[in-house]
Amino acid sequence: MSTLRSHRLTSLLGIALGVAFGICFLTGLVSHFLQHPPAGIAWPSRPVGFYRFTQGLHVITGLATVPLLGAKLWSVYPRLFQWPPIRSIAHAAERLSVALLVAAALFQVVGGILNVSRWYAPMPFFFTAAHYWVGWLAVGALLVHIGVQLPVVRTALTRPAPEPGSAGLTRRGLLGAVATAAGLITVVTAGQTVRPLSGPALLAPRRPDIGPQGLPINNTADEAGVRTTALDPSYRLTITGPQRRVDLDLAALNALDQHTADLPIACVEGWSATGTWSGVRLRDLVALVGADPDRSTVVVESLEAAGRYRTSTVAAPHVRDPLTLIALRLNGELLHPDHGYPARLIAPNRPGVQQTKWLGTITVREDS
After folding, report:
1. pLDDT at residue 161 is higher than 70
2. Which one of 146, 299, 327, 343 is CB 3.0 to 4.6 Å from 363, fit for a cystine?
3. May I ask the CATH architecture of the domain 7-197?
4. What share of the chain in percent tops pLDDT 70?
5. What pLDDT score does 73 carry?
6. Which residues form a coiled coil (predicted)?
């Protein structure tokens, strides 16, 4: 067994990992409840970049846990195989919590990396739901583990272990190497969220300045099967409200009052980028069909024939926000087909999967 291992080393690594997991869990809850708000709760539309910040922090912190988790498992794995494996009922419960914690942590980190890379073939399940529920399992097992190990951690931190006698890597050096690895991973991936770091973002799957019209995309018009429909000259955007229905072609949409907003696209994979969007305020279209924008909920539907995110619900805080647009232009040009031509939703503080592209219908419902 390496003489570098000690209760103090394990405790320090565990504290760092616990903080990282806590950040990931809380920011993950934000992402989940933004996409799946509890009944009767509408998420606010401001601050504009709140989701961009929390989801970027979620992914950056999750990637930084890779060296932390590896070092933590290295520091304790000999104890995982001590004999006998079960010494009492209490010991069995502790071993079970450790097994659940290790399995859940590996699942979250590996699954998160696959999601950031958009490589879903190894995951025969819906990643978002699995990531959410296993996150609760990981946190529960972590709390049990902290409760069991707290006396050991307190003792280890108040009684520093002596350094290994042989020359070579010290425990402080090992901790420094782990911190450096975590920092390096952050620097070479954070550029997909923090634009000033886009230069050294060598491992970022999405750079914020690469893509049609200078913004990244996850799904092209061809992949969505909408190119022909989207480019059809007979295109109409159908808006149905409590008093009337209107069908607007592109000329009619462009004849309405046009507004411009600088808003980010922020995706669950962690990347984000800001564009200058121009189009019609959603609240103006809601008023056009006889509804009150201040107390209306809107369902937008894409021209896509199928897809988990082809429809999206826009709650009242976003409907009435003047920055919520049905965008027709991006950075001064007509939307590129891959960015949602002929029209798309763009709203503040909203996950990218809910910024529906290739809009076909808008249904307005007044809230009671």
Report:
1. no
2. 299
3. Up-down Bundle (1.20)
4. 97
5. 94
6. none
